[in-house]
Amino acid sequence: MYNLQNFFNYLLSSNIEADLQLKYEYPNFKKIIKEYQAVLKNHRKETPKLGKQVYSLPFELYGNDSYVIGINIDLLNQLIYRDTKTINKNDEDYKKAFKAKLSNIEEDLINIEFDKEFLKRIMDESKIDKTYAMKCVNKEDPVICGDFTLLNPSGLPFFIIDGNHKAYGKVQSGKDKIKGILISRNVWIKALVTNKDKLFIKIFNNINILLSYRIGYIPYNSTSKYMYDIIN
Predict the structure, then answer these.
(1) Rounded to an integer, what is the distance from CA 154 to the centroid of its chain?
(2) Maximum pairwise Cα distance, the chain
(3) Are 69 and 217 in contact (CB under 8 A)?
(4) What are the two backbone dihedrals, phi and then psi, of residue 204, each rounded to the nearest 5 degrees?
(5) Which of 21, 140, 150, 171 is deepest in the core (most CB within 10 A)?
(6) What residues contact residue 137 under an 8 Å CB cut-off, 6+ apart?
(7) What pTM value is reported for the model?
(8) What's the DSSP call for residue 112?
(9) Distance separating alpha carbons of residues 122 and 127, to the nearest angstrom
């Protein structure tokens, strides 16, 4: 499942040059892509870390391919309410560049009041039971939103991970400010249901950074701070 053959074939094809209007070459780009493909393909099978609730987020990829990551909501809440301050900032998952950012605030967890217009733009109404959502209007626990910066180049880099029904109910009831928490990738990556999901996120991130440089969005000397070490 999810061998991503079409995705990698597209990245290695000549079509990508014109489709994305690439301006620059990246050293050993095709070699790097092939190595990423091999790492994902050779990843051993494992048992998912499933809880009572899993948030599934699909990524639509070049080449008409897709990948769906799963986030264990029980584990995520444990990280948010108990372990956030003990996250090891020296481990291989942690990247300072991926702290959540709001105006002058830059942290891995930010308590916030979400504006209803912001939530309307990012909530997924296709998955909402609207009758149930209206029963969630007075729930006080916060809406948890994840920062997916550089992982959703074609849209907003935020997704509601937990509290989609609360957000919908509160917005529809006319509440202007809604209690929430914005978490960085350094937090939610630790709640992914498999290590392959984690590996995919790292590789997908790196590919987006390489393409961002090749398109001209970021300078070459800035790429390294946004990239994970995949191939030692």
Answers:
(1) 13
(2) 55
(3) no
(4) -60, -40
(5) 171
(6) 166, 169, 170, 173, 175
(7) 0.93
(8) E
(9) 12
